[in-house]
Specification:
The structure is a single chain. By secondary structure, the protein is mainly alpha-helical. It has one domain. It is built from 19 helices and no strands. The chain starts with 5 loop residues before the first helix and ends with a helix.
Length: 391
Amino acid sequence: MSDPNRALTEPVAPAEAAGRDRWPGWLRILLLLALLYLFLVAVNLLEGGIKGLGEEAAQDLFAGVANPIAGLAVGILATVLVQSSSVTTSIIVGLVGSGELSVALAVPMVMGANIGTTVTNTLVSIGHVRRNAEFRRAFAAATVHDFFNVLAVIVFLPLELATGFLHKSALFLAREVSAALGGTDAAFHSPIKAAVKAGAGAVADFLAAVGLAGGWLAAVMIALGVALIFVSLFLITRNMKRLIAARAEQVLNAALERAALFAIAIGTLVTIAVQSSSITTSLLVPLCGAGILSLEAAFPVMLGANIGTTITAFLASLAADKLAGMEIALVHVLFNVIGVALVYPLPAVRRVPLRLASGLAERTVEHKMLVMAYVGGLFVLGPLLALFLFR
């Protein structure tokens, strides 16, 4: 009897992935790059629209939180609202620096931001919903990131509350780094992120010029972003299948699966380059949906994205020269690095998020409403309930 999860953790068969292509390779590569840019602009529009509706609400969430469970919920909700764990972390750093928030309470907020940032690639996977085989692979690729981050919180939050090992270790490292670097001015601005923001900004400026503003502008940006995600994902998937030969798929998957450190490094470096884990993981979703990457090959790249996304806040903390800010930034670094170091080397533990994501993907293909229940429960209703009970 065949394993129902096998199709999710392996690339599609060569016959399914590749066909005779009448276009020259260079032209299809240019088309693919243009489609990837359109996809990233669409994601940026979606994030900008959600941020426009929820940025003030996100800042208000932090007021009056005194319980770590409520702090975790606030981290999730704030990141969902502003669509950026970096923004959430920056707010947290500001509150800690001003003395309005303790470092101990800020730690679960940072953990919550780690969970909240995965909503983008989960929403992106819905672009494949009309094609069951693609959706099964894409949704599994999106949710394996969710499950890893949730499991990491389940393990590390109780340990942090009991021992304070994360913020104590981060404080020690912050003092050492601060002493070694002093007032080093460290900053990095991604040209890729700037190009994407320029495209999305031009669209937003056009919408504003035709008279849209406030909530209406944000709503249209969300609708346009969703529509462009659907279109670009369909075309990216179609072109990927024709561009990537079956042999290249096999080599790529074998390299990523057998050289986990290499795959993690790729995820880390790409995320540092684009300064967004959402971009990295959202790009992996259509690759998995098309069957070019297996779930097991994509997983370590996503873990690398978890590490890479901490660099922006760390560089900002160096430039700002605030010890409290550096401490929180290093909490984020330690949380993700230790999580990867403890989970990925152990096959039995590593398979847990893979199996959970695969199982959920199988069920959502059969019952599509589970998608909305999952997204709403993990990213909205669950945190709201926790906030109501523990605030």
